[in-house]
Amino acid sequence: MRIQNHPILSFNRGNQIKFYYNGKELIGYEGETIAAALYANGVFKFSESKKLHRPRGIFCAIGHCSSCLMTVDGVPNVRTCITPLKDGMRIESENIGVEINE
Amino acid sequence: MSKIQNLELLVVGGGPAGLSAALAAANYGIKVSLSEEREFLGGQLIKQTHRFFGSEKEYAGTRGIDILKKLIDEVNKNNNIEVLLSSRVLGIYEDNIVTILNDHKMKKYYPQSIIFATGASEKFLAFENNDLPGIFGAGAVQTLMNVYGVLPATNVLMIGSGNIGLIVSYQLLQAGVKVAAIVEAAPKIGGYSVHASKLRRLGVPILTSHTIKKAIGKEKVEGAVICELDSNWNEVKGTEQLIKCDAICLSVGLTPLVDLLKQRKVKTTYVSELGGYVPLRDENMETSIKNLFVAGDVSGIEEATAAMIEGQIAGLSVAKRIGKNSKDEIEERIEEAKNELELLRSGPVGKKIRKGLSKLGLNHGKNYNEKFSEEALDISHLMKTGVPSEENLKNKLPSEEKVFDKGPIAISECFQRFPCDPCVKSCLFNAISENANINNIPYVDFEKCTGCGICVSKCPGLAMFVIHKNFSETTSVVIMPYEFLPRPHKGEIVKVFDREGKYLCDGKVIRILDGKFQDKTAAVSIEIPKEYYLQARNFKVEEGNHG
Ligand code: SF4
Ligand code: SF4
Ligand code: FES
């Protein structure tokens, strides 16, 4: 769901790049954040909450709420809403199907 | 770790307040470092596609994104400003040493003075299922949509009718997203009435005295249950209704981001009118700690125009203190800025801010003339519904019907006293007056007005219309502002609506002013049956008509 024509704005998107979401190849644009690219590809559930496995997505989009944390190129808990997308990036959801024993 | 770098002024935060502060100080020779956590400057301005209100000096009538372009341009041209992007201030210590993280490296700075322009964060709201994907803060919706051009959803329920809620709703419509409704817990609309009226004309319901009970959906929002509230804010039993939507947008207020200030033990206090904990400060924006200043939302939630002026005051105050010369000139400019700020806050919508500031012991040393705040018109119906009352309209129309015989005349459907004046400033014929106070209600002098339609494109509230009642024997023409796609063609038949978004009649497009001057707010002349000249206030172009 990308805006093509807008009455006020014009979007100068960067080059198309490939990235991987849970192993699946997707297309995004240089200059956008990981979260924006995922959302544009119809991905709204980014991860699950640790204990109750509630779905998690974007909430604030400015790096303040931690709702969008994902594992990026092996680094866990990256705030995807403020991290720029890079060519070939591997993005993984967290806590899906992982049970925590306490 | 690298050695400590000395600085004259560190500005923390590259939004409207921070940019203005950096420029104000740098223009008087202060060496400024401006640190911004993101990889770009602009803060919230980057998402503001609407024209600003406020005074002409602070770019009223210009879109937020264009104001930003001007500010960034000036910053880049200024040799005294060093911009540190992707640079997060992590800590500030008792000796004023500041650590900044950039590219995984920590750097230490020792600034002589600091201006904190860290802005605000969005408030949250408690209701069942409020953690579902598809529930966003209003800022997130704006970021996705206006910065990255990604649609957040197809049908959004907006919670909160403050200016942000109203503006984001309008922006959603412009991006082609439906707005199911705007829900407001208070008995009246929180933002400017002109914003609300725009939305009502477009058919968006505004439900005051309503609240959200829960979000529906498993993996993602599929709807919401809302209900009515009584005058004591209690739910009215049996009023629950299900609203279908695929996203819920929360715009329930902002709260100052004072974490860094607290770290440095700046004195803060809770002032609900200013959004939460705010730093104590003086009129020059200096906090309880010498040489530590604040500006913008971090010092109390207000509009961006006020943030820019506060930034100037803080920047100039630093320049006056550590600068070498021009002290008198700087002092003069500080006074000017203070007067401007005072004027901006002097009307009824500034009342809350004034009350908040007085709790900080600030009132610019003067008592506001409360005469200014008395409502001239009874706008209770307008503030409840977004639609003006018959009384309100009568007040703005010519007193005698025969005035319409002279030809096209402008009608201003702006009834609230708030700081705004592009209509007054844009009219070449001096036909609009606010009686010298930017907070007053504009009135058109029908004698002077030529019906040129300039004000239709220049009013940020889209509240100016031109009416030519006797266009022909049976038809009238109304010039309406239009900020949507697709643009109409001359000769095209469009659907015409009233102030509540109800279909009235078909109309014919007879002229479109849509050039550089109109700057994307087209002024479109629509010919309609004469009986509707007092009701027709909006039109829609059918997508299918366009090949
Ligand atoms: S229509 Fe033209 S002359 Fe009349 S008030 Fe507007 S700008 Fe002034
Ligand atoms: S009519 Fe004038 S005061 Fe009212 S919103 Fe428009 S420009 Fe501002
Ligand atoms: S969405 Fe809030 S931190 Fe990313």
TrEMBL record, chain A:
<dbReference type="InterPro" id="IPR042204">
    <property type="entry name" value="2Fe-2S-bd_N"/>
</dbReference>
<dbReference type="InterPro" id="IPR006058">
    <property type="entry name" value="2Fe2S_fd_BS"/>
</dbReference>
<dbReference type="InterPro" id="IPR036010">
    <property type="entry name" value="2Fe-2S_ferredoxin-like_sf"/>
</dbReference>
<dbReference type="Pfam" id="PF13510">
    <property type="entry name" value="Fer2_4"/>
</dbReference>
<protein>
    <submittedName>
        <fullName>Sarcosine oxidase subunit alpha</fullName>
    </submittedName>
</protein>
<dbReference type="GO" id="GO:0016491">
    <property type="term" value="F:oxidoreductase activity"/>
</dbReference>
<keyword id="KW-0560">Oxidoreductase</keyword>
<dbReference type="InterPro" id="IPR001041">
    <property type="entry name" value="2Fe-2S_ferredoxin-type"/>
</dbReference>
<dbReference type="GO" id="GO:0051537">
    <property type="term" value="F:2 iron, 2 sulfur cluster binding"/>
</dbReference>
